[in-house]
Design a protein that fits this description.
Length: about 70
Amino acid sequence: MSTASDLLALYLAAEAKILSGQSTRMGDRMLTMADLAAVVAERRNLERRVQGETSGQVARHQLASFNP
């Protein structure tokens, strides 16, 4: 299993925990333990990485050039 697929499994578990209620109300204040939107965004990113790894695609990177 790759690092991306390991992380994807953790993000899926985190998303399930958030959806099952990691928020609590104390009087007029709401306390949320995690940011669902951030977890969903990273899960989608990891799904793309895992799909790329399983289809044999290689991530393409470019070096930055700071010369004028």
